[in-house]
Amino acid sequence: MPVSDKNEAARPRVVLGVSGGIAAYKACELLRRLTESGHDVRVVPTQSALHFVGAATWSALSGHPVATEVWSDVHEVPHVRIGQGADLVVVAPATADLLAKAAHGLADDLLTNTLLTARCPVVLVPAMHTEMWEHPATQENVATLRRRGAVVVEPAVGRLTGADTGKGRLPDPGEIFEVCRRVLARGVREPDLTGRHVVISAGGTREPLDPVRFLGNRSSGKQGYALARTAAARGARVTLIAANTTALPDPAGVDLVPVGTAVQLREAVLKAAADADAVVMAAAVADFRPAVYAAGKIKKRDGQDPEPISLVRNPDILAEISRDRARPGQVVVGFAAETDDVLANGRAKLRRKGCDLLVVNEVGESKTFGEAESEAVVLGADGSETPVPFGPKEVLSDTVWDLVTDRFSGASAE
Fold it and tell me: In what residue span(s) does the Flavoprotein domain sit (predicted)?
């Protein structure tokens, strides 16, 4: 076999399905990201998708011929071979019509035939008007597809066609790519968090002193966002409560709830946790807040020292949700950022907070906060210790969700 053929065989094979919605043009960016990261991508559009982006564009960007009908190149049996040979099938955008056909096993073109023959992970990224997304028929089709093992990414909220705004927008192509990358990395056809609702807090709270100043911390929110992306790629319904993370792009398939202070974060967590299977408190929550908020900017006065700032305690959210579980079997995960005696302080915090798992990592200059990599030890209330070596934060995220799903299984067995 020539060297070039060997390289082709080693590349992950992705089928990019494109159905006939206005967001079809955004799939060009997803295709670019997939090909530039080393994936061999075959684009399979529906006939209506070609009204938005022509076959010549897909062929030029992918390096493969494009067909929509099962009658093209019949001797190669493409309606069977394309799905059989794929490592991943992703459909973006997936219209309400495409979701309905996939849920009911219809196969009237090359893309729907491919979906029926695929034995690899399938990711569907819906995009449509809010009323269509919220219609009971669409929601039932989505539930059916998820039950069968497909990862159906929740649409984003934002500007739709015309002047309409609401839920139904195609998520950012870069974030769709992250979902695809995580699904491919796991190589598991059945997403293990399907049917689960998980709540994740991320970022760092800010406690205002006056209209221009606040007490805060150095948390970037990257670990919480990695947890959210990983959970979405594993099939979960994700609520991400984000404290001051505007510098980060919204993860695809996640319901984002922005907050600012510890009190606001507590309210959002308690509300979202009411029907959650797991709550992961990755946010850095301020322990204290100023006792008095100055309505005007605190002025610097020549020759005078500033007035001392009195602090009061913020609510201990992790201890509260661990003590008052919203539902039986709910798994609660905390995070502990330590600078010394890391494991000893972590074990003490685990006992004090009453959570099921505590992710303990050492923080400091160029350690954890704001970085793309981290290392940690995950302590369990059962006495377990799971070290996670230095590496990308998504590796730690997968470890956390592995440990959470283990506890789901244990609860089911009991």
Answer: 13-180
Q: Are 242 and 256 contacting, i.e. CB atoms less than 8 angstroms apart?
A: yes
In this structure, which amino acid lies at residue 15? V
Sheet arrangement for strand 40-45: 40-45, 13-18, 88-94, 122-126, 151-152
Q: Do domains 11-186 and 197-297+305-413 have the same CATH topology?
A: yes
Give residue 123's Cα distance to chain centre.
Answer: 13
Catalytic, out of 217, 244, 314, 361 = 217
d(CA 3, CA 211): 64
Radius of gyration of the chain (CA): 24
Residue-wise pLDDT for 98-130, tens only, equals 999 999 999 999 999 999 999 999 999 999 999
Does 316 carry a binding-site annotation?
yes
50 is in an annotated binding site: no
* Residues 324-337 pLDDT 10s: 999 999 999 999 98
For tokens 């760092």, the residue is 204
The CATH number assigned to the domain with range 197-297+305-413 reads: 3.40.50.10300
Distance CA 261, CA 214 (A): 10
Task: Confirm whether residue 287 is marked as ligand binding.
Answer: yes
Q: Is 113 a catalytic residue?
A: no
Architecture category of domain 11-186 in CATH: 3-Layer(aba) Sandwich (3.40)
- pLDDT band per the 50, 70, 90 thresholds, residue 177: very high
Q: Give the pLDDT confidence of 20-63 residue by residue, as tens digits.
A: 999 999 999 999 999 999 999 999 999 999 999 999 999 999 99
On whether the CB atoms of residues 403 and 410 are closer than 8 A, the answer is no
Return the structure tokens found at 187.
């190589």
97 annotated to bind ligand: no
pTM confidence score: 0.88
